[in-house]
Amino acid sequence: MESKFYHGNINPKQFAKALHGYFNRNNLNTKEFGSKDKLIVQIATRQNAESGGDTAIPVIIEKVPDGVSIQIGKQSVLGVAASLGISALATIHNPLNLLNRIDDIAQDIENLQLKDDIWDVIQQVASKHAATMTLSENLRTLTCEYCLVANPVSEPNCIACGAPLGNLQPETCLKCGYTIKHSTQTCPNCKAKIARD
Ligand SMILES: [Zn+2]
Ligand SMILES: [Zn+2]
């Protein structure tokens, strides 16, 4: 499962609304489960869709302290694979059958690109609300390991006890937005190498 973290003043509902707006069309529809802080929007092929095989993909949207985490679940593609298989077989037997299957093939291909489309919609919502993959200013505090006093982020030493805070400074992975400690080399979420100057 692939997850990303968007930091800022944004809530799960705003993402869910955009997904409903974008994916309730043609052969697809959306359903929503869960409460306001943890939502699952399921995007699936409509029952009795005119063309293509069945597919479904869940998007899990959760409120986290500094924003929203989004996870796209595993897409079930058995229906699509079966439908593409039928198209392939039909055209082997008689190439003219391709003409009868064109709608199915187009729909199946579109369904297989759902995941990219979902990330596009998510990214648009994030940009619109100025949510980013770096920590937002208002939540940039960190707790001293020794005296437990909250310090503003980027303070080199604890304002109360003077202990060095360098290793505690939180950062985020710029690829997925995951919050990490300063010394982290590899993002625990997306496995990207953390670049530092
Ligand atoms: Zn301290
Ligand atoms: Zn990452």
Structure description:
This protein is of the alpha+beta class and 197 residues long. It has 2 domains: 2-128, Alpha-D-Glucose-1,6-Bisphosphate, Chain A, domain 4 (2-Layer Sandwich), CATH 3.30.530; 140-197, no CATH class. The chain contains 4 helices and 9 strands, in the order E-H-E-E-E-E-H-H-H-E-E-E-E. The strands form 3 sheets. It has a 5-stranded antiparallel beta sheet with strand order 1-5-4-3-2, covered by helices on one side. The protein has a two-stranded antiparallel sheet with strand order 6-7. Helix 2 runs antiparallel to helix 3. The two termini are 30 Å apart. The structure holds zinc ion (2 copies). The site of one zinc ion has 8 residues, from loops.
What key attributes describe this structure?
197 residues; 2 domains; alpha+beta; 5-stranded antiparallel β-sheet; binds zinc ion
In short:
It contains 4 helices and 9 strands, in the order βαββββαααββββ.
Helix content estimate: 25-40%
Alpha-carbon distance between the two ends: 30 Å
Number of domains: 2
Strand % is 15-25%
CATH architecture of the largest domain: 2-Layer Sandwich
The total beta strand count reads 9
Sequence of strands across the biggest β-sheet: 1-5-4-3-2
- Low-pLDDT regions: none
**Quaternary state of the chains:** single chain
Topology:
Elements (H helix, E strand, L loop, with lengths): L1 E6 L4 H12 L4 E7 L3 E8 L10 E9 L2 E6 L5 H16 L3 H16 L1 H15 L12 E3 L6 E3 L17 E3 L6 E3 L16
Antiparallel strand pairs: 1-5, 2-3, 3-4, 4-5, 6-7, 8-9
Helix pairs in contact: 1-4, 2-3
Bound molecules: zinc ion (ZN) (2 copies).
